[in-house]
Amino acid sequence: MIPLTDKHRAFAYQQQQSETAAERIKKRETERNMCFFDQHRFACGDWKWGHFRQHCNREYRTGETCGMKLIMQTVPVSQKCKLCDKIDTKQRRRSAEEDRINRWKREGGKFRASIERSYEMIKSLDREIYDLRSERMRKLQAV
Structure pTM? Predict the structure, then answer.
């Protein structure tokens, strides 16, 4: 192994400093080429774009953005997103229908038509819940 002299160390230090300076310039240029937005993160883990915060140098027209979005800040939201709210509502309706069916079965066989109607309602709710969950997964994978 060859020992490093002060000259070699100084050259290596300059090279390291110039690389970091080049990286900083590139980062600044990249930041200027993007438009910044807020991000709202829901309790369920989903998110949505919030308000526009800062223009980049690509777009000079008022009210227009370049189309490339970066996050300026993340705003935590304590509620669930609309899709999760809809899923929860449908699951509560499904569980209420199951409770009704169980109650009617305990009371006797005189509610056969109502039981069948409730089974159809449960099938419909299952289909809607499946569709909503599929849409949520599609949105998560689209990012």
Answer: 0.64
